[in-house]
Amino acid sequence: MGRTKAVSKIPGAGTRPWSPGPVVVGILNVTPDSFSDGGSFIDPEAAAERAAAMLDEGAGIIDVGGESTRPGSDPVSREEEVRRVVPVIERIITARPEAVISVDTYRSASAAAALEAGASIVNDVSALRGDPRMASVVADAGCPVILMHMQGEPKTMQSDPRYTDVAREVKDFLRSRAEHAVATGVGQENIIVDPGIGFGKTVEHNLALLRDLEGVVDLGFPVLMGASRKRFIGSITGVQEAVERVFGTVATTVLAYERGATLFRVHDVRANSEALAVAEAVLHASHR
Ligand code: HH2
User: Fold this and answer.
1) Cα–Cα distances in Å, from 99 out to 37, 87, 96, 277?
2) 20 to 30 Å CA-CA from 257: which of 18, 99, 251, 272?
3) How far is ligand 1, taken at its centre, from the CA of residue 285, in Å?
């Protein structure tokens, strides 16, 4: 299933289809209703051009999604999701055969179609809870999977999120989902975890998760941070337009990198790549 990728070895961390060091994951929403870029890339040609631009700006992975999971959003059908993402993945791979693509879906059939079209990572915001067949699709493909924390469902998750200790509860959830994934045949080395910034969380919950990110990092899996342009940044900075929240986003990227996250799912690839290059040089005395 899918293509065989050139892989780089990260000592002690298995074989992964991306390079060592911080990785920028460029967001490509092939949707009419995503919260910051909805409607911009619904045309497959425009989407493929956007992917190429993000690769040129430093993205190591392109995350292609066909359904918005913003607060209050409605699900789309599996057929519609496949119809949106597959032609885009095919176009990206034709233009850039070396591109590493993740598919942002919780549906096993959509994941399987995307892997067949050339994706090589599954980004599942439900952490394998949304579809009982997802774990076996990922296990059979032998591909990496992103397991994300979410309290509730997108339609209602922001109505009244509650935790006693958000950092501990998110960590415990991710540990148990990783254990479930391994029990169903997913390779330990193929697991990436994500605290799910903005998914059933208040501003304070998001800030606590960023502040105490080391707890999630201590699980021993690569950690992905997905704070790009999200509402909590606007509520701190006062920037109402999501597309203008780039400076606040960069702050989250650098802080999360310093705390041990290594993958950064962002809309503004160049700004975050440059910030990470400087952070990497300071923290690890390494130039790219
Ligand atoms: N956030 C969104 C979607 N997918 N996947 C992971 N792993 N982590 C995230 O934080 C995450 C995600 C929501 O952001 P976006 O894709 O920009 O918007 P929308 O859901 O409206 O398409």
Assistant:
1) 21, 15, 6, 20
2) 99
3) 32
